[in-house]
Amino acid sequence: MKRIFLLFTFLLSFAQMRADEGMWLLMLIKRLNGVDMQKEGLHLTPEEIYSVNNSSLKDAIVSFGGFCTGEIVSDKGLLFTNHHCGYGAIAAASTPEKDYLKNGFWAMKQKDEFNSKGLYVRFLVRMDDATQRITSKLNNGMTGEERKAIIDAETKAIQAENSENGKYTVVVRDFFNGNEFYYFVYQDYKDIRLVGAPPSSLGKFGGDTDNWEWPRHTADFTVFRVYADAAGNPAEYSPSNVPLKPKHFLPVSLKGIKPGDFSMILGYPGRTNRYLTSYGIQQMVEKDYPAWVEASKLSMDIMKKYMDKDKGTQLSYASQYASVANYWKNRQGTIDAVAKNGTISDKQRLEETFRKWSVQPANLEYDGVLEDIAIYYKQVSARNVERNYMTQLSRNARYISLAYQLGATLKAYAAQDLQGRLAMKAKVEAAVKAAYENFNTNLEGEMLNSLVNLYQTRVDKDVASPTVMELDAKNLSTVAYSSIFANKTSVTNFILNPDRLKLDADPLLKIANGIATDQRLSGERFSKVDDNFAKNSRLFLAGLMKAMPEKKFYPDANSTMRLTYGTVDRLPIRDDRNYFGVTDNYYTDMTGLVSKYKKGDEEFDLPQRVIDLYNLKDFGQYADAAGYMPVNFLSNNDITGGNSGSPVIDGDGNLIGIAFDGNSEALSGDIVFEPEWQKTINVDVRFVLWVIDKYAGARRLVDELKLVRGENTPPDTKSKNSGTTTEPKKTKKK
To answer: What's the predicted TM-score (pTM) here?
Structure first.
């Protein structure tokens, strides 16, 4: 009965929701009232969006590497995603002599497409409801371990039933704080090749200054291609593989956009916490995120110090630095947005409604739940702060994670007899090579000292790792440099002469193992408290849905494919911003891009060819009907991290842009949707094609696409000779 009520509320709320709020599961589209979507301008049927038996939009959307989204745009497996999503692959392909991050990369022939080792894309085959199957075996009287055991057992059974002997990857996810469960069947392709990337002066134009800000002028895209075996099946990289012939690909629109036009985004949003209580938000912005911000800023400063000294280090740490910087600004922005938007007060009013409802005789199951949640955050406040400092220590002080991971491998290797070691040696050497491939020992030594010192200074001793607290932070790098794990050479020497006793005595390995043990013991210490919180969170959300049947409820993001729909939209004009002549604040153009140009600047430099082409107004068929060259635009779609690279799709199923960012005014968006302020920043697909064609000269890629033109689409033209540049190929001045 409870399940029926929840689903009814889910369906009812969909029909009442604002068009721009919510991240929706695709399989529910058939069962939901789609009138709102049609009113906004959708011309597709639910079957054309999600179908198990026929090709549909879902078949053109991929999880890119497990951390972003991408879309298939040709019948030869061509894929668009963000530049910052492809950043690691571009960096990996680069050398100091061939710096593709700085200069860009364009495969002018198919044979030049570059193997992106370790990268994969994941297609959704189908999804299904497992709620009744799992929840029928659960009850609120269970311990966390008992509950987990049942869920794990059912998950394994579902995976076995649907994987077809390993052909598919099957993932089970919980929704609504564990009140519902769905499983997802995926197919993974592992031969992914880099096809094209603009230089970072375009792909990262504006850098950290413009990140999370509007107006933007960033060519945030990268082009890849998915390869398969001759039969179209997933396969490891091989020269004999061929471009994938997809079930569906997105046509690309050159029609142009305007405010009010329907916009739909499909992708893999990572994590939202829209049902977090006021107590959780207070803990987040007053304690947790300030710790994250402080530790990540210290990590960035150390990386930047060494990256500025050496080109190789700059390339090696570019992706890590960009990731840390992105989250650093996001966390600080969230703190600011929560305060500015009155988020906590809004949550408190919602919770008061719940309290009044919960004390009614029929609802006593839910009475006291919020009070218990409030007590929980007092119990774990210091622990949660410790987690944030430890997270940054574990992620950015790579000596710790490296020793822990390689230590287990070397231990297994040393325990073998001669024959066993010979059998393992190649894999062990490969693991060592990968671990130290982008590793600066001086940088990592300083990172280790600094983050351990910060941890010791900021973390409450009652919840701190005893191992970390006992370390000599000033001289810890010396310990690392004398370790087996000091560098690639020292580990290689151990492989040649393995000594189990020497490994067990290694001081860095002892530290890494000690930290891991401390974390495990901390988890055990707070396990009952965390279990009770999980139960109360389930009860709170289930009760809230009953208490407020008129309110829209949709599942939080959890890295599963979602649909969000809305329209191309404006932001209010701000007095403190320069819009470079744009008066209708939903787009930016190349005038703004060139106006921001600062020669030699790390964030605002531009290739001379871009300036030359702009001066010539060489925009071709990619210009807007009004004559300007569009760069970025806004929509009111509801997205979060993981949606980076997601396609922005019009009412006919055509690609109009690629989502890449949110705006600082609504960085509280992961915990509350701000209807007036929350927008998605997208790169206009016309600018993507302009960069590929006009700037890079990679017209072969545009010719692969199915272009959709309107009556006002400008004619296609050949690029004019700028007369001042040699990019992408040498030309003589006339």
So the answer is: 0.89
